[in-house]
């Protein structure tokens, strides 16, 4: 196996499947099966899940809502997704813990780094909810932060595109995919991978990022097994 401990970042929108809002149970269950496959290989899996399928603070602010209030709503949305994912994983007989950066202690454990690492060592999937716990951040930043804290080998960002391209492949047919690219080149070429806060945090801490298509069956397992899937970003 290429990786021993991974941090998987899933966006909230990925959970929508073909819907415009909320959670598609079919998509959720497909993801749970993909995750189970890698857990069964002995890979330690931590997950950060977004909330964009339910609420984004920026969207609230553009409609006149207080930004911080909106971000609190966004963070709670990630907890809803975390609970849904936990349930889907448990349906596949995967042991899980949800840890949240905002305390909702009747529902989930508070985030405690040492506990999270212990759960991983015991083979439990740890889902991190509520982002960083702070407004004005994203779940991409939360994903990088947690990955560094738990000493993950890499951050695997599952998207609907199979890597980083020199132009948007959904708009430009001739767009060329990078197999590998450095952090520096991503910045110089102005490519969009993550928001800058997340991206530079990853670069500064030498944490490789892999962008891959999470909707293609078997991709996650291939990736952790060392097969060339998606685009690898490193120093
Ligand atoms: N959010 C936040 N702090 C964080 C992470 C998330 O305030 O550390 C809020 C923010 O409002 C954001 C929302 O939660 O818009 C959902 O997260 P994100 O947009 O990153 O989700 P994704 O795009 O991955 O679905």
TrEMBL record:
EC class of the enzyme, as a word: transferase
Subcellular location: Cytoplasm
Domain of life according to the entry: Bacteria
SUPFAM superfamilies per UniProt: Carbamate kinase-like
Binding site for UMP: 51, 71, 132-139
Residues involved in ATP binding: 9-12, 52, 56, 159, 165, 168
Cellular component, GO, one term: cytoplasm
Keywords: ATP-binding, Cytoplasm, Kinase, Nucleotide-binding, Pyrimidine biosynthesis, Transferase
EC number(s) per entry: 2.7.4.22
GO molecular function: ATP binding; UMP kinase activity
Catalytic activities: UMP + ATP = UDP + ADP
GO process terms (BP): 'de novo' CTP biosynthetic process; UDP biosynthetic process
Keyword ATP-binding: yes
Pathway where it operates: Pyrimidine metabolism; CTP biosynthesis via de novo pathway; UDP from UMP (UMPK route): step 1/1
Domain Aspartate/glutamate/uridylate kinase: 4-213
Activity control summary: Inhibited by UTP.
Its job: Catalyzes the reversible phosphorylation of UMP to UDP.
Quaternary assembly: Homohexamer.
Classification via PANTHER family: URIDYLATE KINASE, URIDYLATE KINASE PUMPKIN, CHLOROPLASTIC
Family: Belongs to the UMP kinase family.
Protein name: Uridylate kinase
Species this protein is from: Polaribacter gangjinensis
UniProt gene name: pyrH
